[in-house]
Write a structure and sequence with these properties.
Length: about 100
């Protein structure tokens, strides 16, 4: 499974790279703090309710959660559903929030 560090992600976003950010946390977590990605909770992915991101199948998608565990599960499920270019954000949004602003 490919991974990306929070710093690498920040640098790539700052450089204008075309990346698709998928947040697999719960709505209340997303409401408290998010990095502007698309919210699709892990439970919906498990039920293959992925129509909202179906056109991302061949895009570079960065998947994240709070710490990196749910996003790993989501990646395995999405790969089984035909997504081909997924990376897990190491340390999740906790690592993202720890970056210097």
């Amino acid at each position: 499974m490919k991974t990306i560090s929070a710093l690498e992600l920040k640098n790539r976003l700052d450089n204008g790279d075309e990346l698709y950010i998928l947040d697999v946390r719960e709505p209340h977590e997303f409401a408290e703090n998010n990095m502007g990605g698309v919210l699709l909770p892990l439970g919906k992915i498990a039920q293959l309710e992925i129509d909202d991101i179906d056109d991302w199948r061949n895009k570079e998608v960065i998947v994240h959660c709070r710490s990196g565990m749910r996003s790993m599960q989501a990646i395995m499920m999405l790969e089984s559903a035909g997504f081909s270019n997924l990376s897990n954000l190491e340390g999740g949004i906790l690592a993202w929030d720890a970056l210097p602003k």
